[in-house]
């Protein structure tokens, strides 16, 4: 039985890996600034703040493996990728943690988004630490595409970026990869995981419409500049690493 601390364990990916590790019979701690609304049986919640360092030492006491699934969704919280990573790793090294697993994004170092730049810096911070680190780069979650389509459909349109393809993965599939890396000695410095299928954004938008009964119009949109080239070149894809088993259509059907 291994003791694993999951930073960001209340988020989409973090919650899934907590459930996966717990189901495998390991001791799991969830590190987040605030306690989750609903406690999970057999899972310990520990409060801590990555930016101030408050609570990190006690949270990491006795921990063998650290899994980071933190997310800085806006400019205010984005320093969790950099300053937060340094604080967390410093505390982990002091606590004698032997291994770290970091969740990142496929193609993160291939385009100059500010969000991606912060994630790339986070990878460097982790791989330069004293911990044996595995970086797991994932494609986008099904939930991201669903939220984009649902939000836009409120004004009668569903966007489909021209030339863009996606390989969405279910968080439960990703959680298996993260758990495997956490529990596997010598898992490797970095690997990629993606969903079971690659589809154009228009095909995914049409699938969402069929599943929801939406009457919104699918609108093809151009995306200029580096972001458009990134998508048209398929740098967000990992065709040789179809790790997931749940398709976008299955995801939509399972969630009504």
TrEMBL record:
It holds the Pfam family NAD_binding_10. InterPro entries: ComplexI_NDUFA9_subunit (IPR051207), NAD(P)-bd_dom (IPR016040), NAD(P)-bd_dom_sf (IPR036291). Gene3D superfamilies: NAD(P)-binding Rossmann-like Domain (3.40.50.720). It comes from the Bacteria. This is SDR family oxidoreductase. It comes from Rhodococcus kronopolitis. Residues 8-142 form the NAD(P)-binding domain. The lineage of its organism: Bacteria, Bacillati, Actinomycetota, Actinomycetes, Mycobacteriales.
